[in-house]
Each structure stands twice: as structure tokens, then as C-alpha cells.
Design brief:
Largest sheet: 6 strands, mixed
CATH architecture of the largest domain: 3-Layer(aba) Sandwich
Distance between the termini: 80 Å
Number of strands: 13
Number of helices: 17
Radius of gyration: 26 Å
CATH superfamily of the largest domain: Periplasmic binding protein-like II
Strand content: 5-15%
Order of helices and strands: HEHEHEHHHEEEEHHEHHEHEEEHHHHEHH
Length: 431
């Protein structure tokens, strides 16, 4: 070979070598997509947190990039399903599903990843995080957070009436008596927030677990034999009569003004709330207030905690599953959980960060912590993937028929609505 040509070749190879190394390194960088939602009650801190989490993860994992997309919460799950149907689903997304959505096949089974990583949910997550992400013994998500329901009470209204504050171990009968005692409609003062006086009482409040029965089967597939029993009628009557017979529930117009948290008006003595409402109360309440564990069914009953959690999921069609798992593992782990807690956005998904921050001893947050550590159940609306289509109309119709239409044969109402809901469920499951 001509010496000059040989020298040129050597120089070219030397020049291309660094470029080749850079290209090889670039090829190792993987970009995963993360979709999440923005709700009306979310603040700028919620949006910022998503990007802070992604950047922190990238700093610890330089070969993985996270592309974030935030969407309105309304119809978000439909957006995800449409993208997946077009084979363009996100690698990771954050939402809430009934566990049996796993039967549709678009969620990645995370159990093997957890086992390989040595992740043991029972050691790091609150009970609700485990229950919300498992189906038939297999994990299909990791909990983003953990929240609990409890009762907020207006100390100023209790003091003005000379009534002692509610104490742990109280019962639903005592709750109802206090609501009557603290209602003065002439003064535009009400015993309870409006959510307890309708279908919300049996859905997103602790009363749904603490009125002596359950109105939907644990797997969400049965309402006949649950929704239409004498015990269910007793539970429903308790909720509905707060509005019609006792007239202690805040009126709808107050909710129009203050949204779900009518307690902020200062005109409501007690309201069922969760962790989500604590920041707003701390920032906006103009009165003294406190919180207490939910009332139990009676003196002989143990209180059942109402808790919930959003979850992060992986698409089974992801092209970057290992990278997606690394991100999911990190999001559900202590660093990300601590960042979310310190930002005041999401309550951590396990006891560790609560304890580190002293939240377990806090007079307000400590009540939520104690609930999260108790026996709990999955909320009625998260037990079946067909709940909103089949069962929710029954809940809504009971309220409408009793409160708005004035019907009073509750047993007949429940039987009719249960039958319609069961037919829809059986048809949807192909049974």
C-alpha cells in the first residue's frame, strides 16, 4: 500500500473513532414517554413536580430520557386506550383503574420485574397500594401515592354551641346526633357537608365501609345480594335521611360556590375529607378546625379505613420495557416519594417517608397515617372495570328517586336498581 494512502487512512480512522464512540453512546440513550393528568384542583406545583421528577430520574439514569405529556383528567383513560389501539401508547402513565382491567391485556405484568429487583410491596407500601395494583396475585402497577378519608370539624361552631369535639371511637349514631345538634338553617349553618347526603356517602366517603354492610361484592361483579339487602337499605337510609328527614346537609348552592369542599365556607360543622383537601384547608380556612378518625358502625365494631391510591402503569406494548421499569421503580421509591411529599403534591405511598417527615405524629396528618395503617378495602367504584357503565347509574338513581322524586319504598328502589346493574355487569363480563 502506498505510504501516503496508508497515513491518510490512519488519520481518517483516528478522526472517526471519537465520532463512532459518541454515536454508540447516543444509541444507548433511550427515551420513554410518561403521560399524566392535570385536574382542576391541581396547582402549578403539580405540573412542576412531574418535570422535577423526570429530571431527577434522568440525572441518576443518564441513558434514559423521559418525555412528559400532561392532559386534562377528563377522558384521560379514553385517550390512553385510543393511543394503545393505534400502537402509539405511552410507555408509562398515571391514572386509576379497577384491578381487573388487567384482563384486557394492555398492562404489563410487573411481577417479574419486582421479583428481579427484590421489591416486596408488603414491606414498603401501605395496604391500599398493594390492593389497588394487584390482580389474581400479579402486580400490574405501582402506587403513586396514598390517601385516607376522615372527618374534619369546625372547632368554632362546636365551641359556639358548647358541644364537645368528636373523639376517636365515636359511632355513626353519634355523628348523626352531632349533625342535628349543630344545624341551624336560620343561620345558614349545617351539620355536614353535602357529599354525605347522596351517592357519595356510599362511594367516596368512609361511611361506605362503616354502615354495617358492603353494597358491592369484593370483586365488583355482584350487586344483587349486596345492594338490595335489608342491611343495605339501612345504610342507604342513613345517608339519604341526612338530607330529607334530618335536613342537616349543606345545600347544593353552597357546593356551587365552594366546590366539593363546602367545609371551607365556615358554615359546615363536619365534612368527610381526605388528604387531598388538607392543603386547601391549611391555606384558606378562616376558622379553627381539627380532624378525627371516621365514626364506626357501633360500639362493637372496628372502624374500617377508607383509603385510595393512584397508580403508575406500563404498556405491555412498550418498546423500552426495561427503561420503563427503571422509571416506575424510581417513581414508587423513596427519593421520588420524598420529593412529592416535600412539594406538598402527593402523600407518600408507604410509611417510611411519613415517618421521616414526622407526619405520623402530626395532629392532622397523623390521623390520615393511622387510617392508612388500618384494615381497608378497595373503594366500590374501583372493584370492576364496568362500574361506571353498569353500577354507578344505580347509585345515582337511588339518590334521584329518593331526594328529587320523593319515592319512599327504598327496598323496592334498591331491588330494581340492583337488578338493572346486575344485568349490565353479567352482560359485560359475558356471564
Amino acid at each position: 500500500m502506498n505510504k501516503r494512502i496508508w497515513i491518510i487512512l490512519v488519520l481518517v480512522v483516528a478522526m472517526l473513532a471519537p465520532l463512532g464512540a459518541i454515536q454508540a453512546q447516543d444509541q444507548q440513550v433511550v427515551t420513554i414517554t410518561w403521560w399524566s393528568t392535570e385536574r382542576g384542583r391541581d396547582t402549578a406545583a403539580t405540573r412542576d413536580l412531574h418535570f422535577q421528577l423526570a429530571r431527577a430520574f434522568e440525572a441518576a439514569n443518564p441513558n434514559i430520557r423521559v418525555a412528559i405529556s400532561l392532559f386534562p383528567s377528563r377522558a384521560f383513560n379514553t385517550r390512553v386506550a385510543t393511543a394503545i389501539a393505534g400502537n402509539e401508547g405511552p410507555d408509562v402513565w398515571t391514572t386509576y383503574y379497577a384491578a381487573d382491567i388487567a384482563t384486557q391485556g394492555f398492562l404489563e405484568d410487573l411481577t417479574p420485574y419486582m421479583e428481579a429487583s427484590g421489591l416486596k410491596p408488603e414491606e414498603v407500601w401501605f395496604p391500599i397500594g398493594q390492593q389497588r395494583t394487584v390482580y389474581q396475585g400479579r402486580y400490574y402497577g405501582v402506587p403513586r401515592d396514598a390517601s385516607a378519608g376522615f372527618i374534619a370539624y369546625n372547632k368554632d361552631l362546636f365551641d359556639a354551641a358548647g358541644v364537645p369535639y368528636p373523639q376517636p371511637g365515636w359511632t355513626v349514631a353519634e355523628y348523626r346526633a352531632l349533625a342535628k345538634q349543630l344545624t341551624d338553617r336560620e343561620k345558614d349553618q349545617y351539620g355536614v357537608g353535602a357529599i354525605v347526603g347522596g351517592e357519595g356517602c356510599m362511594l367516596w366517603s368512609p361511611f361506605s365501609f362503616n354502615l354495617g354492610t358492603d353494597v358491592v361484592s369484593p370483586d365488583g361483579r355482584q350487586v344483587v345480594g349486596y345492594f338490595d339487602t335489608p342491611a343495605a337499605a339501612e345504610a342507604w337510609r342513613f345517608c339519604l335521611e341526612l338530607v330529607t328527614e334530618d335536613q342537616v346537609a349543606a345545600p347544593a348552592e353552597l357546593q356551587d360556590q365552594y366546590g366539593e369542599l363546602v367545609f371551607l365556607s365556615g358554615k359546615v360543622a363536619m365534612q368527610s375529607i381526605s388528604n387531598w383537601e388538607i392543603p386547601a384547608l391549611m391555606e384558606q380556612a378562616t376558622f379553627e378546625w381539627g380532624v378525627v378518625e371516621p365514626p364506626r358502625y357501633d360500639e362493637n365494631s372496628e372502624g374500617i379505613a377508607w383509603t385510595d391510591a393512584y397508580a403508575h402503569y406500563m404498556w405491555s406494548g412498550s418498546r423500552h420495557k426495561e427503561a420503563a421499569w427503571e422509571f416506575l421503580k424510581w417513581l414508587s421509591g423513596p427519593e421520588a416519594q420524598r420529593m412529592a411529599a416535600e412539594a406538598g403534591v402527593w402523600p407518600p405511598n408507604g410509611p417510611q417517608i411519613w415517618q421521616e417527615l414526622g407526619w405520623d405524629k402530626d395532629p392532622i396528618l397523623g390521623v390520615a397515617y393511622a387510617e392508612l395503617m388500618k384494615e381497608t378495602r378497595v373503594a366500590n367504584y374501583l372493584r370492576s372495570q364496568y362500574f361506571w357503565d353498569c353500577v354507578y347509574p344505580a347509585f345515582d338513581n337511588v339518590r334521584v328517586r329518593w331526594i328529587q322524586n320523593g319515592e319512599r319504598d327504598l327496598e323496592a328502589i334498591l331491588a330494581e336498581e340492583a337488578a338493572k346493574a346486575q344485568f349490565c355487569l353479567d352482560d359485560s363480563y359475558g356471564e
